[in-house]
Design brief:
11 strands, nine-stranded mixed beta sheet, alpha/beta
Length: 296
């Protein structure tokens, strides 16, 4: 298998069809189809179920796609690191951050740091929190930031960065918008909820502790989608609220929730057995984290 084969498979999946991928890659469709057949023969598994207009990944195909994308990203990172070295950059900081609130973190984490260290370059992975952990475990990035429950991994050190309360975002015409008091978990009984994936476990845990079954009508990747779903379909969005959500909720009602468990932590993760780069150490220190007191 060549790197080109992995890249072409990723293109097929992300373009949605072999025909669309062949146009993007400027490769003849029969040639691309043959490449796909060769991949399936090499690994002894069907990777894609082919439809008349679209494709569908098999379980083996999903595994292959995620690994192929990782391989391509690593190769891109190698090229970037060498390019940075040739261009005179001192170091490259590799970090994974939550895709759902990446703009918020870019401003909070990087604005002052970039100005202070113009000779550092960056490789920023914007991905779901679930993928941040394997990125750090596998050394794809040296630092990860998640916005969810703190994972318990023996090989990872963790350090809380900031806490965000989970609030209810409610359309003005919704019955729950009439209350002026913080909402109880029982107040949500029977109402449709829109919830970002990163806090889904927290919602099910807290609601379960209060003997309430949450009526989750949609699970989203980011806060903004949950808010828009609530706005458009008169549901309630439960989101971890930060400054980044202020403008998105100006036409909605925000209500706090009267439960100590309704919050989410942003947590830095790093491998205990790997020495951080100087850029990584400076980045953590200048974002208020005492590196010398990090868990060992």
């Amino acid at each position: 298998m060549t790197l080109e084969s992995y890249r072409n498979f990723v293109a097929i999946v992300e373009c949605g069809s072999i025909l669309a991928a062949s146009k993007k890659l400027l490769i003849a469709q029969p040639s691309l189809s043959n490449q796909l057949k060769n991949m399936e023969q090499t690994y002894g598994a069907r990777l894609i179920n082919r439809g008349s207009r679209s494709i569908e990944l098999t379980e083996a195909g999903r595994i292959f796609y995620n690994k192929a994308r990782e391989i391509c990203r690593i190769e891109d990172s190698i090229r970037m690191s060498i390019s940075c070295q040739q261009a005179g950059y001192r170091e490259q900081l590799k970090i994974s951050i939550p895709a759902g609130n990446s703009i918020h973190y870019i401003h909070r984490l990087f604005e002052k740091f970039v100005k202070k260290h113009p000779d550092i370059n960056y490789d920023v992975y914007e991905i779901a929190s679930d993928f941040v952990v394997p990125n750090v475990l596998n050394g794809i990035t040296e630092i990860g930031l998640i916005r969810a429950s703190i994972p318990q991994y023996g090989s990872l050190a963790s350090y809380p960065y900031e806490k965000d309360d989970i609030v209810a975002v409610i359309p003005k015409q919704h019955p729950l918008a009439q209350s002026k008091e913080p909402l109880e978990i029982t107040d949500f009984t029977g109402y449709s909820l829109a919830i970002p994936f990163d806090i889904l476990n927290i919602i099910y845990t807290v609601f379960g502790q209060n003997a309430v079954s949450p009526n989750v009508s949609i699970i989203t990747s980011i806060n903004e989608t949950a808010i828009e779903w609530a706005r458009s379909f008169q549901t309630v969005a439960l989101i971890p609220y930060s400054e980044a959500d202020e403008k998105k909720t100006e036409d909605m009602i925000l209500r706090p929730i009267a439960n100590d468990g309704m919050f989410v932590m942003s947590v830095f993760l790093l491998r205990k057995d790997r020495e951080l780069s100087n850029a990584g150490k400076m980045f953590l220190q200048e974002n208020g984290i005492d590196f010398d007191k990090l868990e060992c």
